[in-house]
Amino acid sequence: MTSRIDSNQVRRCLLWVLTSAMLSGCITEITGGLPGPAPKEDRLLAQLDLARGYMEKRDWARAKVPLQKALEIDNFSVEGLVLTGVLFQAEGETALAEEHFSRALTINPDDPQALNNYASFLYEQARYDDALLPLRKLAQNTNYRARPQVFESLGLAFMQLAQMDDAERSFQRALELNFRLARANLELAKLLFERGNLDASNERFFLYNRVGKPTARSTCLGLRLAIASKDKNQEARYRLSLNNLFQDRAEQCLKTL
User: Fold this and answer.
1) Which burial class, exposed, middle or buried, applies to 209 when counting CB atoms under 10 A from its CB (0-12, 13-18, 19+)?
2) Residue 63 domain-assigned?
3) Under a CB-based contact definition with an 8 Å cutoff, are residues 43 and 73 in contact?
4) E-assigned strands of 53-112?
5) Measured CA angle at 98 (ends 75, 113), to 5 deg
6) CB 47 within 8 A of CB 67
7) What region does 43 belong to: left with phi over 0, alpha with psi -120 to 50, or beta?
8) Where would I find the beta strands (DSSP E) of 59-215?
9) Domain holding 55: CATH number?
10) For the chain (length 257 residues), average pLDDT per consecutive 10?
11) What is the pTM of this model?
């Protein structure tokens, strides 16, 4: 006689099998343990990324915490030291800023980020002669993507030191690498004008107007060039622009005519 299988019994068996499988899976996951800590490099990068985000918003207070954590993870992180230096520079803590820039360059004397930011710091402090050293070192790095701007900065530093020949050579080199640098074109145009090279100055000033925006400085130079070239129409145009757009600088400019 064939026995009949109770459908409830079947369901109970299936439920037991499924429950056992689920419990087995859970036990397997638990016995695996918690995941280990992230690698040191990943933790450092996460803190630096967070700090950069705050610094881009000029939220210096919030940027301090991830920077402190970054340097706790790796006290020899050049990027961490440089960013901390930039933060202290923004807060006017010049001694602390220089300390961190110097430490970064002690660790890696050739680091482009450290050299660039230290030079910027020194220039801002009007320590133009000191700024020449990191700028010259950075200018030797042919792989540095912002090398044209480095030569432009060298030219500005030489101008502040009244070393006009060196300034002119630096601006020329900057424009050989990138002819679209507005500031280098303008400063070179002004240098050439003051040396009496009117044609070359006009050429540079024309290039400046193609890549740069009118400023009080450029408008004043445009007026001086127009007067020297005896171009009455351009002279009238620049006088009008100077009075309408840069009235606060007009008197100073007119004294140079």
Assistant:
1) middle
2) yes
3) yes
4) none
5) 70
6) yes
7) alpha
8) none
9) 1.25.40.10
10) 46 42 42 67 96 97 98 98 98 98 98 98 98 98 97 98 98 98 98 96 97 96 96 96 92 86
11) 0.82
CA of 81: how far to CAs of 38, 39, 45, 56, 168, in Å? Answer: 22, 20, 13, 17, 34
Task: Give CA separation, 128 vs 110, 123, 134, 154, in Å.
Answer: 20, 5, 11, 9
> Which residue type sits at 170?
S
In a domain, 66, yes or no: yes
- Our count of domains for the chain comes to 1
Token digits of residue 182? 């507005």
Q: How far apart are CA 195 and CA 190, in angstroms?
A: 9
Q: 197 near 225, Cβ under 8 Å?
A: no
Measure Cα distances from 137 to 147, 180, 184, 202 in Å. 11, 23, 20, 32
Which amino acid, residue 74? D
In a domain, 152, yes or no: no
- Tell me how far apart the alpha carbons of residues 208 and 184 are, in angstroms, rounded to a whole number: 8
Taking alpha carbons only, the member of 206, 250, 255, 246 closest to residue 226 is 206
For residue 50, being part of any structural domain is answered with yes
Is the separation of the CB atoms in 211 and 185 below 8 Å?
yes
Q: How many residues does the chain have?
A: 257
Range of the domain at 45: 41-108
